[in-house]
Amino acid sequence: MTKCDRCKVREAIVFQHHTGLRLCKECFMDDLRQRVLQQVRKYRMILPGDRVLVGVSGGKDSYVLLKILSEIHDSSKIIGVMIEEGIRGYNRSEVFNYMKRICNALNIDCILTSIKEELGYSVDDFMELQLKKFGRIEISACTYCGIARRRILNIYARRYGADKVATGHNLDDEVQTYIINILRGDIMRLLQLHPLSNVHSKLLVKRIKPLRAVYEYETAFAAYLDNFRFQESECPYIVQRPTLRARLREVLNELERVKPGTQLRFLQEIDMLLEPFVETQNRNNLTLPLCTRCGEPTAPGRKLCKFCELIDTVIGMTNIEA
Ligand code: SF4
Ligand code: ZN
Question: How far does residue 290's CA lie from ligand 2's centre (Å)?
Fold first, then answer.
């Protein structure tokens, strides 16, 4: 039996690549909790008394997020929101019932809603509408699904008086997104990703990612150690072609293999590098314009928000942007 490198008492069951340590379950979970706490404190993500709304997808990341948040914050101030996408062949009721039981055990209130109920068109509705209009798929289901879910989380955060919206994005997600924005030269989005960036509208609730310094393999392992039931069915719209994100994931995993800790170091460096620019941008007091259709905030210089634009495109009022 190999002893845990940290407590030197219990049996080591996980090898942490980026530290080179072999840890027992307790020390491993404690290390994740400490890394989350470090991010939460450093970037003032959650203040005492904050109401935190958590987007619960039913996957390993949202499970680990709920669990750690309930350990570091008052669980009566945490609300889980599960959003049914409305996709045939992707039955979510079993997963959502399971997540509801987990929330109950953690003493967290949990709400179930759907894209159709809140915004009028499920993901399937959106795909059918565009097939009817164009005879082919021009806009991916994931584009609509992601925008709709983000919109609903923000609406619910306002409705329930939440101070923050927390999502389960992990370190791998965050590093990929940083690099994608660098490759696209999208400075605005790059700065928005930084945990200190302000929201630019009273209608937007600040989004936080407490797991952003925790590797994906670590959330998977943490969930596995708790006997978390992973959802077996896969969304039929999942993208099979190699997207930029999927390619980046491969490259970054390879770099991690050769030089463990690469992604964690990248995150620390880029956070530090961007901080002065984020502070300057925060001082600019930019206020986003409101969508002329729905009244939600939209990007500078735009009349419609992304959501209304997507709906307009498939029901025939505007053309698809190149
Ligand atoms: Fe939504 Fe795409 Fe995920 Fe399916 S794969 S649930 S469409 S984001
Ligand atoms: Zn709108």
Answer: 8
